[in-house]
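2024-03-11 09:14:02 INFO receiving multi-entity request
2024-03-11 09:14:02 INFO entity count = four
2024-03-11 09:14:03 INFO echoing inputs for audit
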Amino acid sequence: MADVKHFDPDTVLDTVVRLFWRQGVATTGIQDIVNATGLNRSSLYATFGGKQELYRAALERYVQDRSRFGRLEEDDRGLPAITEFFTGLIETRCTGEFAQWGCMISNAHAGTENGDPAVRAILDRQHQGLRTALHTALLSAQRQGQLADEADPAAAADVLALLAHGVNLRSRAGADAQQLHRTIAAAIAAVAPRA
Amino acid sequence: MADVKHFDPDTVLDTVVRLFWRQGVATTGIQDIVNATGLNRSSLYATFGGKQELYRAALERYVQDRSRFGRLEEDDRGLPAITEFFTGLIETRCTGEFAQWGCMISNAHAGTENGDPAVRAILDRQHQGLRTALHTALLSAQRQGQLADEADPAAAADVLALLAHGVNLRSRAGADAQQLHRTIAAAIAAVAPRA
DNA sequence: ACTATCTTGAAACGAACGTTCCAAGATGAC
DNA sequence: GTCATCTTGGAACGTTCGTTTCAAGATAGT
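2024-03-11 09:21:47 INFO inference complete, emitting structure
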């Protein structure tokens, strides 16, 4: 009955994610998106709606594709799982394709993006998810005797979840990976029993 | 010989700080600044230069006026000084005039602002300053027997400095002050000797 | 092959952007 | 009071913003 899209919306959305992730929503114009995707404005608006809706979709996509605490939650090794999570995080933030891009979620916290209730809901959901994943991993660690007697898994999870934002921000400004690794290692060591 | 300014540049800059702090540089227009300050565009450009130079000046002013770790550095009580620093930080971030504004420095990390080397230099300087202040306070704590034997003041300072960014980000998205207080208390308690 | 239906290209929209310009106004030195 | 000098008001600059519009093009069902 009708024509079909001449492009793959999933591929396009992935390209858009990278634009918003690196440059932020305020400093990324529709023209930038047209240039990067090769799409026409008509196709863009017909498929995704306006800029704000496109940003929301991109943020959801970012969460689905780039969030790594799902693995953490299923990893029952305890502290090594947490260490691995942060090690991977820092490497992603400091080297390779996404070096100095920060985290799209952390970035959204700092911008005017979070004025949109739908965006703020994503930020909260993501933070709670990370807290829960860390809490689960810490309980697992506790069960395996990897935690000091006085350590509080819930409180430690909150501390580490906040710390992740610090890593994301500082890495975007070019912080040294080694330095971040050392700091996170110290934070994790703080809940372990004395050597 | 000549006319004199009909306004106080210091007062104007303070107003500009609040605009950039709350809304960010990308989403704050020159028109917003004209409206908020009552200045004419001519006076604005003649006094401060363009938007980017104005932002840099505002960021420097923010650091001078709002940075609180100077007090921390001169406070030799040890852990209580650190607790007080974070307590005040969280209150400023969550209640009163600046509630949910976050920290202008943290916000700058997440935006395109940090592409400007002059801006990034301010961010680095500020982070190092906070690390040093915390380190000094922790050494003071250690001298007074407030630290566990195995605690590493330098590493703990790094952890707490990163944590501050977490507080700044999450508070901007409306995080609960009590929750933040509890988390920070746990992080500080982690370096204290077992009760 | 016809046609209904969706997609695409390209131009255009008004509004807002940061910046510049210049005449008019205000000031202090002489 | 005069004059040189800086400041101010306000219009205007060209660009870019996000969005809309519509004719031309492409497709799948009949």
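2024-03-11 09:21:48 INFO post-check: Chain B has a mean pLDDT of 97.
2024-03-11 09:21:48 INFO post-check: The CA atoms of residues 56 and 125 of chain B lie 14 Å apart.
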